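Deliverable D5.2: sample structural annotation.
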Amino acid sequence: MKTSTSVIIGLGLLLSSGAVYSQAKYKNFSFVGAGVTSGQSVFSDQGARVGVDPYLFHNSDYGFIDGSLANYSILPWLGISGNIRLSEVSDDFDDIPSGIDDRDSSAEVGVTLGTVGARITYLHDVSNKHDGYEVQLHLGRAFETPLQQLTVSPFVQVNYRDNKLSQHIYNVSASESSASGLAEFEADSTWVYETGVIALYDITDSLLGISKLEFEHHASESPLIQNDIGWKLGVGVVYQF
């Protein structure tokens, strides 16, 4: 199958006493697994589709892995980061408009200031795919709930993409315009806004149920943007170790 991060508000004082416990609980914590997803990206012109996504997470004194982003801590609040940016505009991962060329995936290296739950990350292309960079501000926190086995982690993320990265993703060339019917477009720097919530449910000591709901908005006038809001809902199982 082809595959293609909503804020939970109002947990309030009921959960505030459990927040510190939750953060400590996930200090040395790792899981890997997969889930079935349904969603629609901002680039899709064919509606929602079903896919399969991997789930990968690690957090320790040595650093963290959060999806495709890995960080090795060289100081308590400073780390060297690496990221694999899978193509956002590609028929391999989505239903993009006919006549639009697939964008290449890229490898990125940079630095992260902060922790897995509150961080600023700078990432620069090192694979010569676009030679651009992205700056990410990520905020997330784990909360206990009245249901003992259930933990929820709302998050928000804001990404700044420079001209080179934005042009790699959002440009529409003359040949693409002719083949697709979309207007030619040359992108400037771009902001991307993401929000969502992850829920973890203890099934056994080592197996967890996972659900992730995410939304994103790309602040670009590119005609490649088919939907103002992209979304995805996933449900799966992960192995904790």
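Annotation notes: The mean pLDDT is 89. The radius of gyration is 19 Å.
The annotation will be released with the project's public dataset once the embargo ends.
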